[in-house]
Amino acid sequence: xxxxxxxxxxxxxxxxxxxxxxxxxxxxxxxxxxxxxxxxxxxxxxxxxxxxxxxxxxxxxxxxxxxxxxxxxxxxxxxxxxxxxxxxxxxxxxxxxxxxxxxxxxxxxxxxxxxxxxxxxxxxxxxxxxxxxxxxxxxxxxxxxxxxxxxxxxxxxxxxxxxxxx
Length: 166
Prior knowledge:
Layout: H1 5-11, H2 14-22, H3 25-36, H4 48-70, H5 73-78, H6 92-104, H7 111-136, H8 141-165
Helix pairs in contact: 1-4, 2-8, 3-8, 4-8, 7-8
């Protein structure tokens, strides 16, 4: 099983594209600005090229680790990686891994399954992190709902694409 760099790089675009839609004032952008205490003037300026480039890099990191969440076969290989025979053709372990992948390599490799795991990551990882931060920053429910909603949908889409195509 190999890591698919191209799919990961493409999936890293999902947060940017979804962010343009989600945080548009006609969708949740106005609610987000109000929850943050921002005005449209506050958001003008800044080096947008740097912001988008760094956002893409961070999204790539997220897509990279999401591979291991949504593709169960990575778990199988992670238990065998320390054995050098895994990569040596003709060894018993190499044959075992090849047979395993031939039999189970496509199990749970659907968009729906990846989206489920992505959404679970949104609710079980993003919600606790952003929710805790929001409480200490004295942000309200709307702030948490808009941001956690965005990341949950985003991770569901990312997970679905990775699981189906990587």
